[in-house]
Amino acid sequence: MASNVNPTVRRRRLGQELRKLREAKNMTAEQVAERLLVSQSKISRLENGRRSISQRDVRDLCGVYEVEDERMVDSLMQMAKDSRQQGWWHAFGDIPYSVYIGLETDAASLRVYESLIVPGLLQTQEYAQAVIEGMWPEATPSEIDKRIQIRLKRQGRLTDPVNPLRFWAVIDEALLRRIVGNPEVMAEQLRHLAQLSEKPHVTLQVLPYEVGAHPGMYGKFAILEFQEAMDASVVYLEGVTSDLYLEKANDVQSYAVMYEHLRAKALSAEQSREFILRVAEELKGS
């Protein structure tokens, strides 16, 4: 595998291989946990890539699964070693959504639905600061600055000259109308959205109030897809204290269908750009 694969994706791939080995032996995660005297949740976290995995863990699991091919064992142990390397985001210290950043960094395409906040990859620095200060009122200035810098660093995926992220966003009219920061900050943010929407790899659609009820009323979500066929698509649901990652094919398909309905109800990309610029003009009189 390519040496530049980030540690989050390494863990996912390693977890998938370990799951295949377990299923080939017709063993449940509970049975494996009993053999190794560990919790079932540890086995589950190792397989879904949410937990760092050591070479000792791999060796023990290969022993349980009676893997006789030494080359396979060596390959899996090397993957475990590589998965413990640090991605660029680790330089910022403890980040609660580091798993998501790792996935986003390696994703080939990203589809998001947002109803209240401009997607992070599209935010201006001033808007990002106002959002962070409003959502985390107890955050210290250093914590706020760290979150801003991480957000700006993530945006490099949209400007990568070699391999830019294919980005599609459906956004509710509500987030265009909510004045974050002040009218000047908001107007600049809207003009920034319109400008970004002109990039060939960025598609932005507005879901106007007039459509009424729609599937996105369940809440915001993101669908990440990857270049390598072995890397399954992931649905990301952000929470206040914890996040949810859905990888089962049926779950991903359900959200993909929901997204198609949202795209169908939303304004076209050109209509959306015009709509956003009109709202920006309206803010001049605020």
UniProtKB/TrEMBL annotation:
Pfam families in alphabetical order: DUF5753 (PF19054), HTH_31 (PF13560)
Annotated InterPro entries: Cro/C1-type_HTH (IPR001387), DUF5753 (IPR043917), Lambda_DNA-bd_dom_sf (IPR010982)
Gene3D superfamilies from the UniProt entry: lambda repressor-like DNA-binding domains
Domain of life: Bacteria
Domain HTH cro/C1-type: 18-71
PROSITE patterns found in the cross-reference section: HTH_CROC1
SMART domains tied to this protein: HTH_XRE
Protein name: Helix-turn-helix domain-containing protein
The species this protein was found in: Streptomyces wedmorensis
Lineage: Bacteria, Bacillati, Actinomycetota, Actinomycetes, Kitasatosporales
